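User: I'm putting together notes for a lab meeting next week and I want to include a structural view of one of the chains we've been expressing. I don't have a solved structure, so I'd like a prediction I can at least talk through. The sequence is below, exactly as it appears in our construct file.
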Amino acid sequence: MRLFANPLSRFIVIGVSSAICYLGLTFLLQRSGGMAPWVASGVAYVVTFGGTYLLQRGWTFRSSAAHATALPKYAVAQLISLLLTMMIVHLFTLRFQGASAMVISAGATVFAASISFILSSRWAFANASKDAE
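Assistant: Thanks for the context. Below is the predicted structure for the 133-residue chain, given as C-alpha cells.
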C-alpha cells in the first residue's frame, strides 16, 4: 500500500498501535488483574516494548541489524525519549502553570516521538534498506 511506503508513516502506525495496546493492557491489568496502577503500567510497558521493537525493526525500518546491536540502541533511544518527555512536561507545567497538563503532555510526546524516529532511523536501525524509504 502506497500510504505505508514511507518509514515515517509506518513509525506513526506502530507508535499509535503500541500506545493503544499499552493503555488497554494497563487498564486490563488494573481492572481484571487487580494490579496497582504503577505495577500494571510497568508490566504493560515491558510487554509492549518487545512487540514495538520487533515491528519497528522489521516493518518500519526494514533493518537487518542484529538484535544484539539494535535492541540495546533502541532501548537507549526509548530511554532518551522518555526522559525528554518527563523533562519537558515538568518544565512546561512549572513555567505555564495555568496550561492544561494534557496539552503539555501531548506536545512533549510528539516532540519525543520525533527524537525517537531520528534516533531509530539514524542509529538503532541505521542499516535499513534504501528501498524501505
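A couple of points you could mention at the meeting. Residues 2-132 form one domain. DSSP finds four helices and no strands in the chain.

User: Perfect, that's what I needed.
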